[in-house]
Design goal:
It contains 14 helices and 17 strands. The protein is α+β, with helices and mostly antiparallel strands. A hairpin with a 5-residue loop joins strand 6 and strand 7 (273-276). Helix 1 runs antiparallel to helix 5, helix 5 runs parallel beside helix 6 (223-258) and helix 10 packs parallel to helix 14 (555-565). 21% of the residues are buried.
């Protein structure tokens, strides 16, 4: 605390010294200017008085000699050096130096000012004859006819003027020293009174920094220092409560992490393991808790996981991928690597989250394989049925209407089953992302127009109006054939499920970085409670009616996967009996 007292004292002395010096300089300059001005006025007045007296004591002032007749009397009355100069600059009289020894004064500043018509000419310089700095004042000597007979000049040493300033400076210095001594003594007493409670508060603050949150300030103080003591006590109370809360939260978090089915591992900036939970031990197949403090590489014996962790360190971004583990047994793990800040600023830690999705992927593969195998098994007899039906219809058979009717039904059913198999196969490929995508530039308006041509005949049969509302001219990058497949499915559904005389509109516009395609109709609509399920495979709102329209129940599922493969998403808005709008959002630039 003595350092604080010393600093306050030093700061006060420094401020007072700067203030005193500033006041002294300002006062000295002000007084010097005032003394100079006063001397100039006095000397000018004296010079004018002497000039008037010289001219008044002479009956006729026609030349310089007539003025100088009574000069000896006036010389005795003046204490300053007196000089008379003729208009050519020649010194005709000087009260201090022999005029013969003086040079021509034509170049003197005060002399030139008088010649220029000024009533008074002034100058300050070092005299060449007396070798001292003088203050000069010159006034004109005017003849009886108003002509300039000469110049009267008075000079006074500047040293006399400076004596007054030196006296003032000395007085200000003595006053400043006395004031500084007195204020230093008073300041020392005040700082001691301030330092005692501040020292007590500092001891409390040091205890708080040492995590002894039960201490409190009990001293007496006044003003802001007392407020500071109360604030410190409030801080101590708050820290104590927060510490208890942190301990409780830490226990809760520890229990939560230990009971998660997701494996959790914390890695510091040096790639060392700081914490693991039991689920991580199960996923990695060993007791990783024994490796806390060691490198994570000793625990993660997977190149894919190690690569993902290093990528997160380098980019300082969240990383996610599916990792295949081959040791100690085959596993598929959904890995999320999340960068977080450490205890110190700029310190980079990582949280490794692993979720075992082996069983999920196995079930998905079983389901996909079943659909694929079933479709392939069904395709052969269906194709054969279709081929026999066409052969019978094209052959030379007797004209039997009933037989032909049955054969046509067989052909229609076989065709529908063929469509079903193809849709199943298509959906299976899309689900596994096995469909190659050709990236090219697509004009959305042209794609919609070409799709309209495919359904034009069906729309004309039902007298349905087809419209394109192009709010923005958009070009996107993607697979043109897949986009047309999406549009064909949505627009065809709109035509199929819209009554005669209805309307189908396709709107194209831009929202942020997405191209938005809206396919709207005023058809039968979809019940609100069934809108969330329309993208499921084989799901039909009205099963009997859908089959009559020739649908397989897989069209919207295929559309959904196609949109996702194009890095977009699809939603639906519908009111029963008022129509349906499918909204497709695709990124303008492919990812």
């Amino acid at each position: 605390m003595k350092k604080l007292q010393f600093r306050i004292l030093i700061i006060f002395i420094a401020i007072f010294t700067i203030f005193s010096i500033s006041i002294s300089l300002f006062s000295t300059n002000l007084l010097q200017d005032y003394a100079g001005d006063s001397q100039q006025k006095a000397l000018s007045s004296q010079a004018k008085t002497i000039a008037n007296m010289l001219q008044m004591n002479v009956e006729k002032t026609t030349n310089l000699e007539s003025i100088m007749t009574d000069l000896s009397t006036l010389e005795m009355q003046s204490e300053e050096r007196m000089t008379i100069i003729d208009p050519s600059g020649v010194v005709v009289f000087d009260s201090v130096t022999d005029k013969e020894a003086l040079e021509n004064h034509n170049d003197r500043e005060e002399f030139q000012e008088v010649l220029d018509g000024n009533e008074v000419g002034t100058s300050v310089r070092k005299s060449e004859s007396t070798n001292e700095t003088l203050y000069y004042v010159a006034v004109p000597l005017i003849g009886e006819q108003g002509d300039l007979l000469g110049v009267l000049r008075l000079a006074r040493p500047v040293a006399e003027i400076n004596q007054i300033s030196d006296q003032i400076k000395n007085s200000l210095l003595i006053f400043s020293l006395l004031a500084l001594s007195l204020t230093t003594f008073v300041t020392l007493i005040i700082t001691k009174r301030i330092a005692k409670p501040i020292n007590d508060i500092m001891e409390v603050a040091e205890s708080l920094s040492a995590k002894r949150y039960q201490v409190r300030y009990t001293g007496s103080a006044y003003g802001e220092v007392a407020d500071l003591g109360e604030t410190i006590n409030d801080l101590a109370t708050s820290l104590e409560e927060q510490t208890q809360e942190l301990v409780q939260n830490d226990k809760r978090l520890s229990e939560l992490i230990n009971h998660l089915v997701i494996g959790v591992m914390l890695i510091d900036e040096h790639r060392m393991i700081k914490m693991v939970n039991p689920a991580m031990n199960i996923i990695l197949g060993e007791d990783v808790s024994k490796l806390v403090g060691n490198s994570y590489i000793e625990a993660t014996k997977s190149y894919g996981l190690s690569h993902l962790i290093e990528k997160a360190y380098q980019k300082n971004e969240k990383q996610n991928d599916e990792i295949y583990f081959y040791y100690p047994k085959d596993k598929i793990v959904d890995a999320n690597i999340v960068p977080i800040e450490g205890k110190e600023p700029g310190e980079q830690n990582l949280i490794v989250l692993l979720y075992d999705i082996t069983e999920i992927r196995r079930l998905e593969k079983v389901r996909t394989d079943f659909v694929t195998n079933a479709s392939h098994e069904l395709k052969t007899p269906i194709t054969a049925l279709k081929g026999f039906s066409e052969t019978l219809l094209d052959g030379a058979m007797e004209d039997k209407e009933v037989l032909k009717q049955f054969l046509e039904i067989m052909l229609a059913e076989s065709s529908r089953l063929d469509f079903l198999v193809n849709d199943i196969l298509e959906l299976s490929k899309l689900e596994q992302k096995q469909v190659p995508m050709k990236v090219e530039e697509i004009n959305l308006t042209e794609a919609v127009s070409s799709t309209f041509q495919l359904v034009k005949q069906k729309a004309e049969e039902k007298k349905i109006e087809l419209n394109i509302l192009e709010e923005d001219k958009l070009l996107i990058t993607g697979d043109s054939s897949r986009l047309k497949q999406i549009l064909a499915n949505l627009i065809n559904n709109a035509v199929v499920y819209t009554q005669e005389g209805g309307k189908v509109e396709v709107t194209i516009k831009k929202e942020n970085e997405y191209a938005v395609i809206k396919v709207s109709d005023n058809g039968i609509g979809i019940p609100e409670d069934e809108q969330d399920r329309i993208f499921e495979r084989f799901y039909r709102v009205d099963k009997a009616r859908s089959r009559n329209f020739g649908g397989t129940g897989l069209g919207l599922s295929i559309v959904k996967y196609l949109v996702e493969n194009l890095n977009g998403f699809i939603t639906v808005e519908s009111k029963l009996g008022l129509g349906t709008t499918f909204i497709v959002k695709l990124p303008i630039q492919s990812k």
